[in-house]
Amino acid sequence: MSGAISLASIAAIAGATAAVGGTAYSVYNGQKQAGIQKQALAKQNQAQQQAQASALSTDRQSAVAQKAANMQTPNVSAIMARAAMMGNQGLGSTMLTGPTGVSTGNMNLGKNTLLGS
Fold first, then answer.
1. By the 8 A CB rule, do 99 and 91 touch?
2. Global pTM?
3. Whole-angstrom Cα distance, residue 99 to residue 105?
4. What is the pLDDT of residues 14-66, one digit of tens each?
5. Distance (Å, rounded) from C-alpha 47 to C-alpha 69?
6. CA pair distance 61, 59, nearest whole angstrom
């Protein structure tokens, strides 16, 4: 019986082969699952980045709309009325000239030529 393979040896070899095959399948299946998880993580990251960009865009749009709504405009009619009233009271001058303005004699540089030449 030394040259013959016993039934127990055949069973042991078959068991070892099945174990190796099962291990190989487990490794393959694990690699496949890891790839699927990486793809899912990449999709999740992309969706999160798009959501952040959309939220930032919405924030900017609302800030612009709020600024436009709160924009103050000058009251031109009140400014013009005040200037007209002050002009009627003799206060239409600047702080540099006074209420009488500048006399034309002070603007003459002494010569009657153009550009003082």
1. yes
2. 0.38
3. 17
4. 778 878 778 888 888 888 888 899 999 999 999 999 999 888 889 889 988 88
5. 33
6. 5
- Please give the Cα distance from 71 to 76 (Å, whole number): 15
* pLDDT score of 96 more than 70: no
What's the whole-number mean pLDDT along residues 82-103?
65
Q: Could you tell me the two tokens for 74?
A: 């000058």
Residue with tokens 């030529």: 113
By the 8 A CB rule, do 12 and 6 touch?
Answer: no
Q: What is the DSSP string of 35-58?
A: HHHHHHHHHHHHHHHHHHHHHHHH
Residue 84 CA, chain-centre distance (Å), reads 48
Position 67, amino acid: K
Amino acid found at 39: Q
User: Which residue from 48, 72, 70, 68 is spatially nearest to 60, judged by alpha carbons?
Assistant: 68
**What does the alpha-carbon distance between residue 46 and residue 55 come to, in Å, rounded to a whole number?**
14
Q: How far is CA 48 from the centre of its chain?
A: 15
